[in-house]
Amino acid sequence: MSQSVGNTALAYARVWHTVDANGRTLGKLAQRIALALMGKHKPIYDAGVDCGDYVTVTNARSVVVSGRKSEQKLYRHHTMWPGGLKEIPYDTMMEKKPDEIIRKAVSGMLPKNKLRDRRLARLHIFADEKNPFEANVLRRWEDGQTPGPQIPSPSLGFYKHQQTRTR
Question: What is the pTM assigned to this prediction?
């Protein structure tokens, strides 16, 4: 009789990440945030299971865009009234709601399915340096990269019993 070991609660535990958006490019930052929200950096990732982490973003006012997007980008929404299409330029949106710029970019990079709203609920964006979730944060992205799997160091003796081939 064989026994299989299932996924434990520890494997599905959610970790809090924090990102400083100061001087970061909007698209690349949104892509990395979307990967963390989906949980693609975890070895237990499954597309139908919500196993992503929490992400907090600070300094949303300082995010940058490339090219002439700051002059040309428009955010559109409809009020559902006849002729109710509203267009808000990037500059105006940055002054009034800088968190919505990052939220819309991340939303566009998440899969369009039933898990999308649940994943976006785990994204917390703050316009300034202040972060009320600072006590929960376990990982920081100093260079903007999503933390990958931990690779054991050779100095810890992990490779001690393995022989290397010489050619």
Answer: 0.79
